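Input (structure):
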């Protein structure tokens, strides 16, 4: 499979919470396309979800560079940094996103990733509401496939947001 099709398979594995399978598939993808930023981002998510935060951070850092600083990737890096107890560095990623918003579109979901990692759930949900209002396509992936917002799942606002999206 080409890198894009491999990424689709990785997304399915993440959605099924098969971290080992997702990591195996990302390794196969990165063997073929070592700088494919989206595969790096997906690998970072699988590492973070499986508790390998050091590896997740290193992988997200590579993804940020390879993607030319796609905001979602910066947000996921901030999430992993926060979960690793590196709050100052997570706040730096949040500042980078906010500064970037002065010159280009920064999706609210990217900011919500960092706030979730920092355990600032009210702010995370407010941002997810903004993402819903903006019709951010990444919101659906973030709530159903990607693990970065899994800490929000026990909160009743999560189920209400999923319901309002129609999932």
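Output (sequence):
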């Amino acid at each position: 499979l080409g890198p894009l099709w491999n990424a689709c398979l990785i997304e399915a594995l993440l959605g099924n919470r098969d971290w080992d399978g997702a990591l195996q598939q990302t390794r196969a993808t990165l063997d073929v396309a070592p700088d494919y930023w989206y595969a790096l981002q997906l690998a970072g998510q699988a590492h973070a979800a499986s508790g390998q935060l050091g590896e997740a951070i290193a992988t997200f850092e590579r993804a940020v560079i390879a993607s030319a600083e796609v905001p979602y990737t910066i947000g996921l890096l901030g999430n992993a940094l926060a979960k690793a107890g590196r709050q100052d560095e997570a706040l730096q990623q949040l500042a980078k996103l906010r500064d970037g918003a002065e010159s280009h579109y920064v999706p609210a979901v990217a900011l919500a990733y960092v706030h979730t990692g920092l355990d600032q759930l009210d702010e995370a949900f407010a941002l997810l509401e903004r993402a819903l209002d903006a019709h951010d396509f990444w919101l659906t992936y973030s709530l159903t496939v990607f693990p970065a917002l899994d800490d929000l799942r026990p909160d009743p606002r999560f189920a209400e947001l999923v319901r309002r999206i129609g999932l």
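Notes: The mean pLDDT is 96. The first helix runs from residue 3 to 15.
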